Amino acid sequence: MIAYPIRPDQLRALIQSHDSDWLAAAARGEGPDWGRIKAVFFDLQQHKCGYCERRLPERGRVEQDIEHFRPKRRVTSSPGGPGSGRSGGYGRLAYNPDNFLVACKTCNTSLKKTQFPIDGRPGRDVDDVPVLDGVERPLLINPVGPKCGSPRRVICFEGILARPRTKGGRARRQADAIIGIFELNSREELLLGRFAVIWLTWLLFERRERQRGAEAKEARTDLNRLKRGWSEHTACIRDYIDLCEADPVRAWEYFDCARRVVGFSN
Q: How far is Cα 112 from Cα 205, in angstroms, rounded to an integer?
């Protein structure tokens, strides 16, 4: 999970450019189809699910949904979690772009469903999203918005596994909620995908370190591109690159495991 920072005015400008009537129709209470602006978030998120960073298919787009970060009709929380027992949804935010992102159907429909755990109190009469965030203190993170970098302050990666970045406090509760709800450490497609990017990242890192001239420069450029967010599992890549720099021996051990899993060992 990585951040896709954008200001509310910038987001609305993108929506207006893509569909000149959608915002006006929403303001008139006409309930325009959310699918009309899905492409805005699809492109903003570099064609990846906002929660699990799995790449989404471009054609047909049947594997991705406009996800309402705060559920529209009904709200539940993880069993025993903060804010459990709530029932009313956030219908007032159903057409507020600050409440949108694109998510894969597994994250949206199968896993998150109507869950929305909070640390604060329900903001039943608040419709301004930044103010609502301050009142409710949600444990989940919407990666699309003005708060750049917040997912990485909460979650880190040890090899292919997502871990809380802190041992306690609110950041730990956020990490536990995100990792648990989206099953980031148990979905086979995610684990295999992270193995693959670790394999590729180590090969580029080793090439950068061992080669000279144009080849080293090319490897450095490719590593920087991986960190920018276009690849699947960028959060995992960023932490793995940091490990390569700090502890190459341990990083190689993860690579050795990865190459065995993805089928490139002898």
A: 36
The token pair that represents 76 in the structure block: 């539940």
Strands 144-145 vs 4-5: parallel, antiparallel or unpaired: parallel
**Chain position carrying tokens 């306690």:** 168
Write b or e for each residue in 24-42: b if 16 or more Cβ atoms lie within 10 A of its Cβ, otherwise e: eebeeeeebebeebbebbb
For the segment 60-114, what is each residue's pLDDT rounded down to a tens digit? 556 778 899 999 888 886 544 555 445 678 989 999 999 999 999 999 999 999 9
Q: What are the phi and psi torsion angles at 103 (to 5°)?
A: -135, 155
Q: Is pTM, for the whole model, over 0.85? A: yes
All residues at 6 or more sequence positions from 141 whose CB lies less than 8 Å from its CB, including other chains: 1, 150, 151, 154, 174, 178
Strand partners, 155: 164
Q: How far apart are CA 121 and CA 69, in angstroms?
A: 17
Residue 226 amino acid letter: L
* Type of residue at 260: R
Neighbouring CB atoms inside 10 A of 73's CB total: 12
